[in-house]
Write a structure and sequence with these properties.
The protein is mainly α and 412 residues long. It has one domain: Growth Hormone, Chain: A, CATH 1.20.1250. Helices cover 81% and strands 0% of the residues. Keywords: Membrane, Transmembrane, Transmembrane helix, Transport.
């Protein structure tokens, strides 16, 4: 059953990130239809994250009370309604409102999924399990790009969005046939629910400000700037700067997604095997992720020097695969700091990181417009900024995060 649950979480993340990324794939026709500038488009990309961090924490905390399965189903049902509602979008303002609401209800899905997978899998498989969940995000954001581009081209962007709403309805039905948790975890889950009302808030906030929690969150934050850039700006970058056609862009985005999945799943497997062998969080989790992120940042920056289309695709494959290592491993680190509140801990991690979703698109649009007619320079400056931020926080993460040393905020 755990593999069935994992498969559903994988499919759920595909839908989640297809919902996010389709706006980028449809950027050119939407900008043309509503006559939007780069700054306005940056606002559209950013609006998705305006409520995302807050609802991510609230929704995940609620999931600790009512159960992850029930909460995930409710979220998916809401997505379906919103995606069908796209058929009624008539202008820039309504587009912004739609993106804000979609982000608000999609915010809790990732942290709850990580926590749900954590409950179903033993420690030696959790890195791999979370990497499968994360790979669903990559498939949804990138691998299915040619299909989404085809739907946009043939049916128009509104009906392409509505089809994703139908997929959400199917997933909602399927999740109803799975149990909430494995039988051997039911006792632990009940205990955790009893402890929810006894949380020592002061000690909890102290835990969140500890080096392990703080620098894991900052590393996640820095990578998420790149996550959002890929979703909102990569298709535009490939068309406007690298001079690809829409079809070539779709296949390039898919190729980057497929290769990067293999890279960060391999990193997660290496991390799991090291942890199984030595039970050392610093070596198996922190160093593996930290060094991967550093290498990924350097690959990203290399595109400023070599802008050949082939190298850009190769570099983006490496950059995405290596920097994304924090996405499956980061949740295992913060959950380890407070195991009884897995959804809450992962929601704080992902929601704090998703603040990058508010800042990143608008900042990129601003940087591009500052470059004037030199669009390529603007995109290159945004890539340099992202690479530098990821490199800095990867170094700090490697130095200061020590998950083996933790404080229990439930204790007085």
């Amino acid at each position: 059953m755990r593999w069935i649950v994992l498969a559903l979480l994988f499919l759920g993340m595909i839908i989640n990130f297809a919902d996010k990324s389709i706006i980028g794939l449809a950027a050119v026709p939407i900008m043309k239809e509503f006559n939007l500038s780069y700054s306005q488009w940056g606002l559209v990309g950013s609006s998705y994250y305006w409520l995302y961090p807050v609802t991510g924490i609230i929704g995940a905390a609620w999931a600790d009370r009512i159960g992850a399965k029930k909460m995930l189903g409710l979220l998916m049902l809401t997505w379906a309604v919103l995606q069908f509602g796209v058929l009624g979008i008539t202008g820039f303002f309504v587009l912004i409102v739609y993106r804000v609401l979609l982000g608000a209800f999609e915010g809790p899905f990732s942290p709850i999924s990580y926590s749900h997978a954590h409950n179903w899998f033993p420690p030696k498989l959790r890195g791999f399990a979370n990497s499968v969940v994360v790979s669903g995000a990559t498939v949804g954001a990138m691998v299915v790009a040619p299909l989404l581009v085809a739907l946009i081209t043939i049916l128009g962007w509104r009906w392409a969005f509505a089809i994703l709403g139908a997929a959400s309805l199917v997933w909602f039905v399927l999740i109803q046939f799975t149990p909430e948790s494995p039988k051997d975890a039911e006792g632990k889950q009940k205990t955790a629910k009893k402890k929810l009302e006894k949380l020592n808030v002061k000690a909890f906030l102290t835990l969140l400000s500890s080096p392990s929690a703080l620098f894991t969150t900052l590393a996640y934050f820095s990578t998420y700037i790149f996550v959002v850039w890929i979703s909102v700006w990569l298709p535009v970058y490939l068309v406007k700067v690298i001079k690809m056609s829409s079809v070539q862009m779709g296949y390039a985005v898919a190729g980057i997604g497929i290769v990067s999945v293999g890279v960060y799943i391999a990193i997660s497997i290496i991390s799991d095997r090291l942890f199984k062998k030595n039970q050392n969080w610093r070596v198996s989790r922190v160093y593996v992720v930290g060094f991967s992120m550093m290498a990924g940042a350097l690959a990203m920056i290399s595109t400023l020097v070599f802008q050949n289309a082939i190298w850009v695709i190769v570099a983006m494959c490496l950059a995405k695969g290596l920097t994304y290592a924090i996405l499956p491993i980061g949740p295992t680190i913060v959950i380890n700091l407070m195991p009884d509140r897995g959804s809450l801990m992962t929601s704080i991690l992902t929601s704090s990181g998703n603040i990058a979703g508010i800042i990143g698109p608008m900042l990129t649009g601003f940087i591009i417009e500052l470059a004037g007619d030199n669009t390529a320079l603007g995109f290159n400056q945004s890539i340099l900024f992202m690479g530098a931020i990821i490199l800095l926080f990867a170094i700090l993460f490697s130095i200061y995060v020590k998950p083996d040393i933790k404080t229990n905020p439930e204790a007085n």
